[in-house]
Design goal:
This protein has helices spanning 13-22, 30-43, 53-62, 67-83, 85-88, 96-104, 133-153, 172-177, 180-193, 208-217, 223-226, 235-238, 258-271, 273-277, 296-299; strands spanning 106-107, 110-114, 120-126, 161-166, 198-204, 229-231. By secondary structure, it is an alpha/beta fold. The chain has two domains: 13-87 and 280-294, no CATH class; 96-274, CRAL-TRIO lipid binding domain (Phosphatidylinositol Transfer Protein Sec14p), CATH 3.40.525.10. Strands 1, 2, 3, 4, 5 and 6 form a six-stranded mixed sheet that branches. Helix 7 (133-153) links the parallel strand 3 (120-126) and strand 4. Residues 94-259 form the CRAL-TRIO domain.
Length: 312
């Protein structure tokens, strides 16, 4: 699929070399590993027979080239696509519902460059304090759509992700509309089904509401991720982790404005419109899973836990 715009600057030189070392990526054997994953996929009756090479390579990188971990992630990814229609259907960025969020409710663009240690930075901020329950779900859907684009477009790979959350517009009404079930499903997708190496979460423009928000979200986070959340009282403290010059202009940087970046990523999602509409078969078919089909209530731990899938 030929696309019009390259929004992600790919790491090169020494940074690229460091990333490969961190991801345990051997350029001499990575395509052998890719072939092994493709062969495994063909043998799983409940999973798609084939998928593009680029996202599979991204999954290998996100699994530090552990074939077993990659298989677990892929199985969870395809399972979530079937289990969470609220996130994985109606993914047309030109629809009135998604356009309203993209244009006037929330911004969440990945930044073009990477940090000196090879990490991709995404900044999320509200631009309107009022979101209803469906708009919150659609916002999480859009975040996973951006994640899918990155499966295709992180061509060289990155050494992890940094998320900066600007809490200036986080209000009590939003907190009241958060559904524990929806948040839990989203967190399982991010932590178990996508090849994301979440290194740091930074919260800026904090307020007392942020503490309540974190209290709500933390039960759904792995312990290691809870320890990677940093709250900054001043913007300059963030620059110790993310170089100032790679930030948007609103945050003292030089990579354009948040509105420009958001518009570019909105266009990117529209460019992928056919890809988002087509992948009805890119999901698990539980009726064909060897052994016991996944029980979604058990999978999402409606009783309070999260259960791993068993993988052949």
């Amino acid at each position: 699929m030929k696309l019009k715009t390259d929004l992600l600057v790919q790491p090169s030189g020494e940074i690229s070399k460091k990333i490969r070392e961190e991801l345990k990526e051997d350029v001499n054997t990575r395509y052998k590993d890719l072939a092994a994953i493709k062969e495994w996929l063909r043998k799983q009756p409940h999973l798609p027979d084939e998928w593009e090479d680029m996202p599979l390579l991204t999954f290998l990188r996100g699994s530090s080239f552990s074939l077993e971990k990659c298989k677990r992630k892929l199985d969870m990814y395809f399972t979530m696509r079937a289990a969470c229609p609220e996130f994985f259907t109606n993914r047309d960025a030109t629809s009135p519902e998604l356009r309203e969020i993209l244009k006037g409710k929330l911004q969440g663009p990945p930044l073009p460059g990477v940090t000196p240690n090879g990490r991709r930075v995404t900044i999320c901020r509200g631009v309107h304090p009022s979101l209803d329950g469906q708009q919150i779900t659609d916002t999480l859907k859009l975040a996973l759509m951006v994640g899918d684009v990155r499966l295709m477009e992180e061509v060289q790979g990155v050494a992890g992700d940094i998320y900066v959350l600007d809490a200036a517009v986080l209000g009590p009404s939003l907190l009241a509309r958060l559904s524990p079930t929806i948040v839990k499903k989203f967190m399982i997708c991010v932590q178990e089904a996508y090849p994301v190496k979440l290194k740091e979460v930074h919260i800026i423009n904090t307020s007392p509401i942020v503490e309540r928000f974190l209290t709500f979200v933390k039960p759904f986070l792995k312990e290691k991720i809870r320890k990677r959340i940093f709250i900054h009282k001043e913007l300059k403290d963030l620059y110790k982790y993310v170089p100032q010059e790679m930030m948007p202009e609103e945050y003292g940087g030089q990579c354009g404005t948040m509105e420009e970046l958001q518009d570019q990523w909105t266009q990117k999602l529209i460019e992928y419109r056919d890809w988002f509409k087509a992948p009805g078969s890119i999901k698990a078919n539980e009726s064909l899973r060897p052994g016991k089909p996944a029980n979604y209530d058990e999978l999402f731990g409606i009783d309070g836990s999260f259960r791993q899938l068993s993988i052949d």
